[in-house]
Design brief:
By secondary structure, the protein is mainly alpha-helical. Helix content is 70%, strand content 3%.
Length: 271
């Protein structure tokens, strides 16, 4: 079993290696890893992230508030730290760092401290195998998350099992990737183009044009009403004249029939 002094030294080496391992060549590696994000900072990040959207070309734009200079510097450091912690484990040094971190973590459980040297070594190997392939920084965050009761599903009255540790580490890696994505979106989002407010002169001119347009529409409506009324009157007069003509024709026909019958009656009496 590794001595406590050796384990502590390896933990310090692991922290320094996490702080300086970066994927981005433009970021400067901090001497020490940044402090964890506070609740207020997470709320602020969520607010900033809510005002960003991604364009079709893949670029980011901010439709609302943007981070201040101090916030931007803080978010850059946090993104760089996440890049380092999410870097894949690749060598024996990383495996040794995982071994030492899990050893320190598991020794915090009184139930496990009672194991003899052989049992402790076997148990530790099972935990190392459970998180195999995961980055050192993810395992470190998962251990801290367990100690802080960050996960909702475990029974914290008992030590974790190797599958529990793998589940916690997988969930933590997902959270870290989402956090890194949100930080990147906020940092890359360009401010939306500022819309120039109209001057008082422009507003007055627009109001006058709108009033003129409304007046012209009202005049057009009035003229239309007059035209419709005239057409209705003309239609009524034409209908009246047609009725008079039909009446006059019927009256003339009636008088002709009366005259014919009268002539026929007079001719019969003479005979």
């Amino acid at each position: 079993m590794v001595s406590p002094t050796s384990a502590n030294e390896r933990l310090r080496v692991m922290s320094r290696s996490i702080a300086t391992r970066l994927h981005t060549s433009t970021a400067l590696a901090p001497a020490e890893p940044p402090r964890p994000m506070t609740t207020a900072e997470r709320d602020r990040l969520a607010t900033l992230r809510g005002s960003t959207k991604r364009n079709e070309d893949g670029s980011w734009i901010s439709t609302g508030c943007v981070p201040s200079l101090a916030e931007r510097e803080r978010f850059v450091a946090l993104r760089a730290d996440l890049d380092a912690r999410l870097a894949p484990a690749s060598d024996d040094e990383d495996r040794a760092a995982v071994h030492d971190r899990l050893h320190a973590f598991l020794m915090g459980f009184s139930q496990l401290r009672t194991l003899d040297a052989g049992g402790s070594a076997m148990m530790l190997n099972d935990f190392v195998e459970a998180v195999e392939g995961l980055p050192v920084g993810v395992v470190h965050r998962a251990c801290r998350g367990w100690n802080q009761r960050h996960f909702k599903w475990p029974n914290y009255s008992y030590p974790p099992t190797p599958p529990d540790m793998r589940r916690a580490a997988d969930e933590m890696r997902t959270e870290m990737k989402v956090e890194r994505y949100d930080l990147n979106a906020v940092l890359l989002a360009a401010p939306a183009k500022k819309i120039d407010r109209p001057t008082q002169e422009q507003r007055d001119k627009g109001a006058a044009e709108a009033a003129a347009l409304i007046a012209s529409i009202a005049d057009a409506g009035k003229r239309l009403d007059e035209d419709l009324s005239a057409a209705a009157r003309q239609g009524s007069n034409a209908e009246h004249l047609e009725h008079v003509r039909r009446f006059q024709a019927a009256e003339a026909e009636r008088k002709a029939r009366i005259a014919q019958r009268k002539a026929e009656a007079e001719g019969g009496s003479n005979a």
